Amino acid sequence: MTNEVKDPLFILIKSLTKSEKRQFKLYAGRLGNNSDSKFVALFNFLDKSSKLDESLIVKKGIVTKLQLSNLKAHLYKQILISLRLNPVHRTARMKIREQLDFATILYHKGLYKQSLKLLDKAKNLAIDSEENNIAYEIVEFEKIIETQYITRSISSRADELAIQAKDLSVKNVIASKLSNLSLQLYGLMLKTGYAKNDKEHEYLKNYFEGRLPQYDWDLLGFREKLWLYKSYLWYSLMSQDFLSAYKYSKKWVDLFYESPNMIEVNPVFFLKGNTYLMESLFLIKDRVGLEKKIDRLEKVVKSDGFPQYENTLAVSFLYINTNKFNLHFLKGSFEEGLPLINEVLKGLEYYKNHIDGHHVMVFYYKIACLYFGMGNHEKSIEYLQKIISNKSLKMRQDLMCFARVLSLFAHYEAGMDEHLEVQLRETYKFLIKMDDLYSVQKEMIKFLRNLENVNPLNIKIEFKKLYDRLKKYENHPYEKRAFLYLDILSWLQSKIEDRPIGEVIREKVKLEARS
User: What is d(CA 197, CA 479) in angstroms, rounded to the nearest whole number?
Assistant: First the structure.
């Protein structure tokens, strides 16, 4: 019975660092007579195992089959308690919650002044960290103590708490509305995708403006501004307004640099803002800007003050390396990106419990594009096949679409004619089934459908025809995004002129730098 992929306990144990494992064993030992207890034995067994085999656990005599489920749950809880005691994981929110718990204990013991003292300390930390929901909860707790017991507080105490509660309530309401809008826009993108025409853009505009709450800018704190920028960013990306996406992602990131303490409080939000900023720079083809942002983010992540959690390290790996691939694509430096492939493959193995299957497939696509660009079409096909043959994972249709198209071109380039006809038929069927195809994709379908009938002597003529048909969509407001998945124009130009695609892209970079 092997189920290590989905078992939460096994994944949790494998995510532990050496210091965390050592701390857990010390923690378990302090519980008294637990060095030989069943849950410690189970921990040691799973720690040394490469996979979870429940039948082997029972066979080893660690626990009976009937007791195994309860023992796993108990071990899971004890590991979490141990991690909670680890200073590395003591975030501002956990510190606030701990002070609130202590204050609650003192309150129930009738030590009201001591309770209020801790609550005031926790409240100040919550306000400084923009944890306004917890701050509001603390104020409400303070009000309970002040109204039920004679604490001889100053006479203005009641008004002070009432004003604090009102201000925090207003902030929490606007933050909730803005976070709801951001979530609704994300849900809409999953449902309908990016705006493909004026009608869809008008619907998106009305949807966004109809749900954007009224607010007073002067009353917005860090968190409210964060949700506001995030909402505008989603709207900009869905509208395919990449300059606007750059504007709001930059505001998002600048918000953190203006309040550096918030990077430690909300490291994942900081990282996400940076990846949207880098993606926006990729979308507007700002090579210099993208390179600078990658370098800056790497320095921040490696700095002493940045939280070194497994999650933040995995997210940093994902975002930074995704954009390193994008930078190579923009610069046409395919061969220079070869060391990045090995680095990413090692990272995917190391962070396999932290990176979801979809993002793994995105990396495979970028690896395939890099190999395609350097002319290693067999390796490109190898990684594209990992995507195409993945039946268990639901990916974005656009990623699967361009993976199939690139695979077809890679087979053509590799001279694998015996597979080309099958590839053509399967790719054509897949594209036909897609809903709401872009015009770029429709032109590809026409080209692919007629490719097998083209005389090899006339292939350059057909490439030139396709190039001319696609060129007019390069800067189209709703079509240009398609060229970022696959730089088919540069590839077509390379075939027409008998030059490597990297050379074509690098020449474009030089021409743009002069203009």
Answer: 9
